[in-house]
Amino acid sequence: MDLPTAGNDCKNNDHINNLIAAKKSLKLSLEKSKVLGLALEKAGKILDEINRRLPSLEAVVRPIRADKDALAAVGGHINRAVGPAAAVLKVFDAVHGLEKSLLSDPRNDIPGYLSVLKRLEEALRYLSNLKKSLKGLRELQNDGQRIYLDSGLLDSALHKLESEFRRLLMERSVPLPMSSLSLGEQACIAPSPLPATVIHKLLAILGRMIANSRLEKCITIYVEVRSSNVRASLQALDMNYLDISVSDFNDVQSIEGYIGQWGKHLEFAIKHLFEAEFKLCNDVFERIGTDVWMGCFSKIVAQTGILAFLQFGKTVTESKKDPIKLLRLLDIFASLNKLRLDFNRLFGGEACVEIQNLTRDLIKRVIDGAAEIFWELFVQVELQRQSPPPQDGSVQKVVSFITDYCNKLLGDDYKPILTQVLVIHRSWKHERFQERILVNKVLKVIKAKNSKTGSLQYKI
Questions:
Q1: Crossing angle (nearest 10°) for helices 435-453 and 397-409
Q2: Residue pair 409/418 in contact by the 8 Å Cβ criterion
Q3: How far from 55 is each of 43, 46, 51, 77, CA to CA, in Å?
Q4: How far apart are alpha carbons 136 and 141 in whole angstroms?
Q5: DSSP at 271
Q6: For the segment 99-141, what is each residue's pLDDT rounded down to a tens digit?
């Protein structure tokens, strides 16, 4: 056997090295194949998911699957949609640009402020109309949620106008002192307490408030401010006596002084305070409607004392009957009759029905009470005829009182009033009354008392 040579050894080494390299290469290829297999497995899952979603995706894109001509026709619609969208953005920018002006104090330039506010209203109307055409916003509105397209800017501006409305009223509302006025028969009528320039501003504000359904708020402010002013004027007169009740006095004589004040204070309130408020309500609210300004006026007078005046008169009619009460009832009737035309003009509307009813009730009570006392005077004197005369021979005090009293009834101050009262009272019974009946009745009263005490002097 031949021994291996050096050349053969070299060849064997080369084969071994090749085998080792091939082994390594094969191992590396196997690892890469394994990695690729995992990748393909994952890709398969992804492809399966895509394949599963393809039907729904196809349904979504089907509407726009059209040929080139069809897509070209849609282009115009797209352009027309983009235009309004850009306009909406411009409107929102405009609204934002108004914010600084509307959050400023309106007193510096009310016309300018109202002009800016009107622009805001126009912008909001445009946006509101757009909102109604959008399904999502409409559903949100149906849920009861309010959408502030202007972030509350309109509400803020309207609140500022309400404050300015109040300020204009309060700045010019000054109590009217009774001492500065004459309450004679020619008492002057108070002019409007607000200058024309202020009324013009109030009217301008009302216009925008009405456009935004805020009229009631303005009326509330107006009644509050003007009522407070009238009350301040009346409180200076110290009229606590109006709250007196029948249980607080024994007879009318104890409150005679109050009845005199009542007549003067009522005339002041009617001819100066309520007359001025009547005129001002007409100036401010006339354009809105008669029912509005008359309703506003009725609220003011009801809150400032007219009902208390009428209640005081009623209290007097409920007091105990006596001859002095007749005179005081005639005083009350004279005061009411003097203001009759004013009452009819100021309180003649439907809004003042309560005042009308209370006034009619008071007048009826006064006339009934006065007539009842007058017709009973003779009976009262007859009852006293049985009383003995004084031992010293002096005339009874009651005789002197009756004589003076009857002279008053037939005097220039009370005779015309008493005659008018009796005429009205008889007319309610469909009876006629002649003035001579009054004179004869008074003379009969005097003679009835004189028959026991001798002749007395009296005036006719």
A1: 170
A2: yes
A3: 20, 16, 8, 28
A4: 9
A5: I
A6: 777 888 888 888 998 888 888 888 777 777 666 655 444 444 4
